[in-house]
Write a structure and sequence with these properties.
Jelly Rolls; globular; mainly beta; 4% helix; single chain; 19 strands
Length: 307
Amino acid sequence: MSAYHPSSSSFLTPYSHTPRVVLVADGKISITNADHIGSPAQYRQPSVGYLHRRRRPSYQLGAFGYEPFGASLDVLSRCFWGGRCYRHHRETINLSGLPGSGVDGYPFFLYGCDNYSNCWNGQPPQFPKQLSSMSSLIVDMSYSLTGTITGSRNVDLLFDQWVCTTNHPSAQSDCLEIMLLPYYNFPGGTGQPLVKTFNQSVIINGTPTTFSWDEWDGHPGQNMLFTPHTLPGPASQDMRFDMLPLMNMATNDYKNSSFTWLMGVQPGSEFGGNSSQSYQLTMSKLDIEQTLGSSPAAPTNLTAVVH
């Protein structure tokens, strides 16, 4: 598909002729206490299901699963896709007996590739892609977090992005983890130094406006975070924003120019900090629109806020 080069404000329009994730398939995964029981400190690889195209079952369009950090589990996640984009993506968390560590689990959906070069690229947009090869990467989503999502527990809505030194990484150390968190209820905070606060032009609930982000420096770790300036952020909203300026900002502010390859788009929800969790994340829309082109000029829709 030929690239479409929008004007600087075109991401504020509902649709554009760009490669995007659209009408794909229906699928579901259900994870029970038979899966991944281990000690709280033990990292496990995700339990992964695959999203297939209805008429071509071997044609994988994405992966979805649960990345556990050790717990005694009841039914954890049940995810549904269909409609124009991912018309219905639902994660239902109803757990007890958790270790209550910072993050006990992360149910997620992955489109593209992970940081070990496993890929699910069944249709455009394609990943990995160099940041410099894109002029925008629009995320258009409607989400709702309901249940017990505040108080003395950790719950978030997370886009866990991996920007790597190569298009074929073999280990997590090859990548910078960039976390975008439109909702962030971690009472203990990030534990990282604040880089800056800035405003990004977005569309929220159909109205052009700005969203205020805080950027956090992950040194000596290999990560950067973006959280709402006003915590915990909206528990539900329809939000359309360009992810690419945030990826570029994070790699620049981390001060390591070797991280250039974006592996994919991975939304989900982390939970922790409490022995029990009971909430639901529903995404009634998730649209990913990738525009290819030469490296854009420095973004003009980000405004620093000085306190």
